[in-house]
Amino acid sequence: MQLKRPSVLLTMLFLISAAPVVRGDAVTDWNSFGVTTVVTAARGPGGYVDLAYMHIAMYDAVNAIDGRYTVFAVTPHSVPAGASQDAATVAAAYTVLRTLFPEQAAVLDAHYMNSLEAIPTSQSKTDGIAMGTEVANLFLASRAGDGRNAPITYTPGNLPGDWIPTPPAFLPPLVVYLSQMRPFAMSSASQFRADPPPALTSDQYTEDFNEVKSIGELNSTTRTPEQRTIGLFYSDPGPAQTGRAFRQVAQDNPMSLADNARLFAQLYVALADAAIASVETKYFYGRWRPITAIRAADTDGNPATTPDPNWNSLFATPNFPDYVSTHCATWASFSETLRQFFGTKKINLTMTSVVTGTTRTFTSTDDINKEIIDARVFAGIHTRTADVEGVVMGKKVGRYVARNFFRPVE
């Protein structure tokens, strides 16, 4: 019997079938609202950029009141004594999301009113709302012209090794704007650009090719049932899957509102910049995906690769180049951020998947990185080298953000 790919619709139905939201403080509540907003808008990896916008505004607003850490982007004109951190958090998050996603205004307005109703009426609340709104608007103004959603054209190549649209839908290239967007922490989108991918005739390319051809095929006989589950596990929308895990980390490690604001801002700055860095590398090299490489192996000049014109991956290939893996870069960026924030690799992280209905539990950031590398190969959508180099890139981004931003005030 031929196995069918999981429906894309199933992935998107996480909005109505995901595990119950972990309730916490204003930071985690608005993370949940923000995640739902970006997934509803089908923002893909661009959703990390949108969530970075929101969490930076929340952090700078709360931190202006708390005062223990360095400013990330903007400072309000004044900080009234006793201003409510909760109100500032809510107002900052709402203002950013309402500006970026006006089409979801009704839902966001309802969240805003419900959040504010939970805060007792007082001058502290009024001052917090004003501060959060001001910081959000100042931050949005500072990002004007940063390239978010810019209509950048990418023309695929026509030589062996060049990325071209992939089956089944042959969609145009995805989120090209990220490749040229102004980052949040990095000096440029190309700061951590990966070295070139292996040559088509190299031993490394041959090894990568034959591995993914065997274990990543739709009806692979070399992939175990557990490996199949792992491959499918990470086909959830990335912002939704990571958001659920981050909120669980916050629940498992109770902190103040200000510390949660710092953790989530640091996570999403690293995620956004890793997305930008990885997409910049993708479009700089424009390397073909496994499904194209395997079907057209008779054109690669490599006698050790054999074509299979009917080969299909376990699930449909995302519509942008192979090298490097954005999933691996973003996963490594958040795992490194957690390591830097808590000062240890021994981090408990629980991830859930709507697609498989299973849970993956990790006790080390190294294990997180190893699994995401394997998962994208098991799914048939990336070569191992693209995954490994994505993890290398993501770790560099996470370390860079942690060492240069969100630092204690001297």
Characterise the protein shown here.
With 410 residues, this protein is mostly helical. The protein has a single domain (8-404), classed as Vanadium-containing Chloroperoxidase, domain 2. It is built from 15 helices and 2 strands. A two-stranded antiparallel ribbon has the order 1-2. The relative contact order is 0.16.
The side-by-side strand order for the widest beta sheet comes to 1-2
Q: According to CATH, what is the class?
A: Mainly Alpha
Q: Please give the alpha-carbon distance between the first and last residues.
A: 65 Å
Shape: elongated
What portion of residues belong to β-strands?
A: under 5%
Mean pLDDT score: 94
Structural class: mainly alpha
Order of helices and strands: HHHHHHHHHHHHHEEHH
- The proportion of residues forming helix, as a percent range, comes to 40-55%
Give the count of helical stretches. Answer: 15
Tally of structural domains: 1
User: What is the number of E strands?
Assistant: 2
Summarize the structure.
This protein has 410 residues and is mostly helical. The chain has helices spanning 8-12, 14-17, 26-40, 46-66, 85-100, 105-117, 123-142, 203-215, 225-233, 238-252, 257-285, 290-295, 326-342, 365-378, 384-404; strands at 349-352, 359-362. The longest helix has 29 residues, at 257-285.
